[in-house]
Automatic annotation (TrEMBL):
The lineage of its organism: Eukaryota, Metazoa, Spiralia, Gnathifera, Rotifera. It comes from Rotaria magnacalcarata. This is Uncharacterized protein.
Length: 461
C-alpha cells in the first residue's frame, strides 16, 4: 500500500496509531474518521470530542488498541509502552480453580498451582550445556513467559517456551496429541449425569405402572442420551462437519481391542499353579508371584482371576456377532500361524462361521481340534490389517526396578509366540530372566512398537 502523503496521527490519546491523510477521508481500512469530524466542528466542540475520545480509550482493554505503526518516529517508545500494557492486562497469572483442577486433599496431595506459579526468579539467562535447557531471565514470579513481538502482534495472553531439547519436544508432541484427542466428558462426569437421569426418571410424575418394560427402557435410554448430549462440548469444526453431513473422524487404520491384562492374569495363574505343584513335589522353596499388578491402584477389585473372559466381536461382514475368547483362540490357532504373536494375531485375523456361503474372500485358518468351537468356527484373515489397542494398565517403564518383573511379563505376553505359559517362562525362573533368554524371538516390527511405548512414557514427563 502506498502511504505517501500520509502522516502519523498526532493525538496523544493513543486511539489513532495508524497513518492517515491530513485533509481527506482515509483510505485505510482501520483508520478512524475522527479527524474529519473534528474539522467540521468549532474549536470548543473539537476539544470536547478529543476529551471524550480519550475518556473512551481509557475504558478499552489494551488488546483492542491497534498495533503501533513501525514507520512512526517514536515507534520504539510506543512499542515498549504497548508491550507493558498488554503484559500488565493479560499476562499476569491469578490463581483460580483451574490451577488446582487435579489436586486431591483426600490423597494428601500438596496444594500447588499446576501452572507452576509463582515461578523462580532468574537474574541472568543461561543455557545448560548438558541438557541444552534454556532458562530465560525472570524478574517477576507471576508473569507468564512472553515474546514482545508475538504478544504485540497477537494481542493476547501467552506462556511461551523455547523448545530446544529433545525431551521438551517430546512433551510438546504428547501434550498436543493428548489435548486434541481427549474426551469432552470424563468417565466420572458421565456416570454422574447418567445417575442423575435415572433419578429424575424415577421421580417423574408422568410414569404409569401400565408401561411395558420396553417402553420404560426406551425412556431411560432417551433421558440418558439427552442429558449427556446437553452437556457435550462441541467445537466449531465439529458443528460445521455435522451440518455439512461429513464424517466426524478420519483414520488411516481400523482398530481391534486387546485386553492384555486378562492374558497376563491367565499366564501368571498357570505359572503359579505349576510352581506350587513343584514346591509340594520336590519341597523346593520358590517364590510365587500372586500379584499380577505392581501398582495396587490399578487393581479393579475382581479377585476371580480364573474366570474366563469373552468379547462380543463383529464379523467381517459387520452383520453378525461372534462370542470370542482371545486366549483360547490364540492357544489353539492353526499350525500355520504357530510363529505369530498375540499382538499380530489380533491385528490380522477374526473368528468367522465355518458354514459361511459364497466364495472364500480371504485366507482361512482352521482351529486345532482342542478348540471348543473347532467344528463351527475358523479364523479369517482381515482384508486390511487392524491396529491393536491395548486395554488395561499401561505397560511399565523399562528403567524402573520395582516394575521390572511386570515389564518383562508384559513384553513377553503379546510379542513372543506361545501356546502355554511354559513357552514364555520356566517355573524356576523369573520373568526378567525369561525375557533375556527369549528377546531374540521378538520381531523387528514388535521392537519398534516397544520403543514407541517407551517414548510415550518419556513424552509424559
Amino acid at each position: 500500500m502506498d502511504l505517501s502523503g500520509f502522516k502519523q496521527n498526532i493525538y496523544e490519546s493513543g486511539i489513532l496509531s495508524t497513518p492517515m491523510k491530513e485533509l481527506s477521508s482515509s483510505s485505510i481500512f482501520h483508520a478512524s474518521s475522527l479527524p474529519n469530524k473534528l474539522l467540521q466542528t468549532s474549536t470548543h466542540d473539537r476539544l470536547k470530542s478529543v476529551t471524550n475520545a480519550s475518556h473512551n480509550a481509557s475504558k478499552l482493554i489494551p488488546a483492542c488498541f491497534p498495533t503501533p505503526n513501525p514507520p512512526s518516529p517514536n515507534f520504539a517508545a510506543r512499542f515498549r509502552a504497548d508491550v507493558v500494557q498488554l503484559v500488565e492486562a493479560n499476562n499476569i497469572h491469578k490463581h483460580s480453580d483451574t490451577c488446582y483442577k487435579y489436586w486431591n486433599a483426600n490423597r494428601g496431595d500438596k496444594k500447588s498451582c499446576r501452572m507452576r506459579m509463582p515461578r523462580k526468579l532468574i537474574p541472568v539467562s543461561t543455557i545448560d550445556p548438558d541438557t541444552g535447557h534454556i532458562s530465560m531471565r525472570r524478574s517477576d514470579p507471576w508473569i507468564n513467559s512472553f515474546n514482545e513481538y508475538l504478544i504485540t502482534a497477537c494481542r493476547s495472553n501467552m506462556d511461551i517456551k523455547l523448545i530446544w531439547s529433545g525431551s521438551d519436544a517430546k512433551a510438546l508432541v504428547y501434550y498436543i496429541t493428548d489435548y486434541v484427542t481427549k474426551m469432552s466428558l470424563s468417565f466420572h462426569d458421565t456416570f454422574a449425569l447418567v445417575q442423575k437421569s435415572i433419578t429424575s426418571l424415577k421421580t417423574a410424575s408422568n410414569q404409569t405402572d401400565t408401561e411395558s418394560a420396553i417402553e420404560k427402557s426406551r425412556k431411560l435410554v432417551l433421558r440418558c442420551y439427552n442429558t449427556l448430549a446437553s452437556q457435550q462440548e462441541l467445537s466449531g469444526v465439529q458443528v460445521a462437519s455435522y451440518l455439512m453431513n461429513w464424517n466426524d473422524h478420519y483414520t488411516t487404520h481400523k482398530f481391534e481391542g486387546l485386553f492384555l491384562i486378562q492374558i497376563e492374569r491367565y499366564l501368571q495363574t498357570q505359572l503359579n499353579e505349576i510352581r506350587t505343584k513343584q514346591k509340594l513335589k520336590h519341597s523346593v522353596h520358590d517364590v510365587t508371584d500372586d500379584d499380577v499388578y505392581d501398582n495396587e491402584e490399578t487393581i479393579d477389585g475382581d479377585d476371580n482371576n480364573d474366570e474366563e473372559h469373552f468379547q462380543i466381536q463383529s464379523a467381517e461382514s459387520d452383520k453378525k456377532y461372534v462370542l470370542v475368547n482371545t486366549i483360547v483362540d490364540y492357544q489353539y490357532r492353526s499350525e500355520i500361524l504357530k510363529d505369530i504373536c498375540v499382538y499380530d494375531f489380533t491385528a490380522v485375523s477374526i473368528e468367522e462361521n465355518v458354514n459361511q456361503k459364497g466364495r472364500p474372500p480371504n485366507e482361512r485358518y482352521p482351529f486345532q481340534k482342542q478348540h471348543p468351537q473347532t467344528t463351527a468356527y475358523l479364523m479369517l484373515k482381515y482384508s486390511n490389517l487392524h491396529l491393536p489397542i491395548l486395554y488395561g494398565p499401561q505397560i511399565p517403564r523399562r528403567d524402573r526396578d520395582k516394575t521390572r518383573e511386570r515389564y518383562s511379563r508384559t513384553l513377553l505376553t503379546p510379542f513372543v509366540p506361545w501356546r502355554t505359559d511354559a513357552d514364555l517362562c520356566d517355573f524356576n525362573r523369573t520373568w526378567e530372566d525369561a525375557l533375556k533368554s527369549r528377546q531374540h524371538l521378538i520381531s523387528t516390527y514388535s521392537w519398534k512398537i516397544i520403543e514407541n511405548i517407551q517414548l510415550l512414557h518419556e513424552y509424559k514427563k
